[in-house]
Amino acid sequence: MDYVRTALGRRAETPTVGAVATTDAGPREVRPEPATRFGLIRVEGGYVAGDPHWLSDSPDGVTIGSLAMGAQDITDVGSGVSGRHALVRRDESGGWLVEDLGSKNGTALVSGATHEGAALEAGVPAPLRPGDELILAGGTTFVAIEGVAG
Length: 150
Prior knowledge:
The protein is mainly β and 150 residues long.
């Protein structure tokens, strides 16, 4: 504080703000709300591991697996995850579904709302919502998210 007094000749203070003039310049530009997207983010040991995987609205969906080959597919998986382990796609009503593709080590879904978990039966789609955990082969965890990609 001695430096401030020496430099300014007084104590440091927050400046006061005077009146702000307003003008009626007409309607303001309204910016559209950014579109939200649905995605998956990998979690390891309770920490986010990597960037979000924003999912495509493609009717083919997004395949998750160690050997998934599509441009939007997710291969950021641990050992034990099958080559084509699970499929995430949009349903007709705009919601998201996850389906085990007959994986060797299974897929579990844990509700973000109730924290109840269940193993997915191969070929039977289940609703996937923001906050849900998707656990592949008992060790690779993704959390479903909704946000603005960027």
